[in-house]
Write a structure and sequence with these properties.
The chain is mainly alpha-helical and about 80 residues long. The protein has a single domain (about 5-80), classed as Orthogonal Bundle (Non-ribosomal Peptide Synthetase Peptidyl Carrier Protein, Chain A), CATH 1.10.1200. It is built from 4 helices and no strands. It has helices spanning about 5-15, 35-50, 55-65, 70-80. Helix 1 packs across helix 2 (about 35-50). The longest helix has 15 residues, at about 35-50. The relative contact order is 0.19.
Length: about 80
């Protein structure tokens, strides 16, 4: 598991209060119990704090589109951090 994937997983576990959540780059929000629109925003806010990045409204909305997964989120974060993973 990449360092960035591990960090994103840790943030999501914290937001959901569930240390049993296991994510891969192909995981989607639909696979996490309770990941609804409100939790999506909570995840985004927590990720912004953890990684020191800001997501635009368009980026947040785009992450909810069909076919988007944790890998898409990691790519977005890495891009905002200058490619660091």
């Amino acid at each position: 598991m990449s360092s960035l994937l591990e960090d994103v997983t840790a943030v999501i576990r914290d937001v959901f209060g569930d240390d049993e959540i296991t994510l891969t780059e192909t995981s989607t929000a639909d696979e996490v119990d309770g990941w609804d629109s409100l939790q999506h925003l909570n995840v985004i806010i927590a990720l912004e704090k953890r990684f020191g990045v800001r997501f635009s409204t368009a980026e947040i909305s785009d992450l909810k589109e069909e076919g988007k997964n944790i890998g898409s989120l990691i790519t977005l974060i890495a891009g905002k951090r200058g490619g660091a993973s």
